[in-house]
Amino acid sequence: LRRRLAVVCAVAGAAAAGWLYLRHQKERQQRSRRLQHLRQLALGQGDFQLQDTSGAARSKADFLGRWVLLYFGFTHCPDVCPEELEKLSRAVELLERDPALPPLQPLFVTVDPERDDAAALARYLRDFHPRLLGLTGTPEQVRAAAAAFRVYVSAGPRDADGDYVVDHSVLTFLVDPDGIFRDCYSRSRTAEEVARSVRGHMDAYEPLPP
């Protein structure tokens, strides 16, 4: 009886070990597929080819390794863009109070390259966070950047003075150090809510392995 019981236990143990091995292998395969998918997202998601206010070429690759808060707008915007940039600046300031948090880069991409050249962007952004970096480019480059983030952009009719308003999506995007979208924040979110959300993503972040 003891021998039979020992055989049964051995068989059961081997079966359990085999089941655990197969389960571990399946989990590894699933994780590998997910990491591959995330790498593809990181390479193709939201890329752009623009220039900063010093004239230097900038792409998403320049910001890998840093968290990014990115907003699309234009300097002639009467109220929405200044409010959103004030909110973005405030959220960055709140996060900067904790030196243990990783670096965060705020970006402003114009949707009005005709009027927002490098000099205009530099003048405009002086009123906001000192590290807020402005990006512009050719109309084609700006359209491609907006499309990559699925931002709606439509210039309105010109008035007698040639002035016009650009209608666009009002969203602030959070991109992680691997270049993957993590979240986006609408106009209804406060600076405090944005900062809390960004901190939560930072705390939960696990970098993609090389």
Automatic annotation (TrEMBL):
GO terms for cellular component: mitochondrial inner membrane. It holds the Pfam family SCO1-SenC. GO terms for molecular function: metal ion binding. It is found in: Mitochondrion inner membrane. One of its GO terms (biological process) is mitochondrial respiratory chain complex IV assembly. InterPro entries: SCO1/SenC, Thioredoxin-like_sf, Thioredoxin_domain. Residues 39-203 form the Thioredoxin domain. The keyword Cell inner membrane does not apply. Cu cation binds at C77, C81, H168. Keywords: Copper, Disulfide bond, Metal-binding. Its main location: mitochondrion. Disulfide bonds join C77-C81. It is a single-pass membrane protein. PANTHER family: ELECTRON TRANSPORT PROTIN SCO1/SENC FAMILY MEMBER, PROTEIN SCO2 HOMOLOG, MITOCHONDRIAL. Belongs to the SCO1/2 family. This is SCO2 protein. It comes from Loxia curvirostra (Red crossbill).
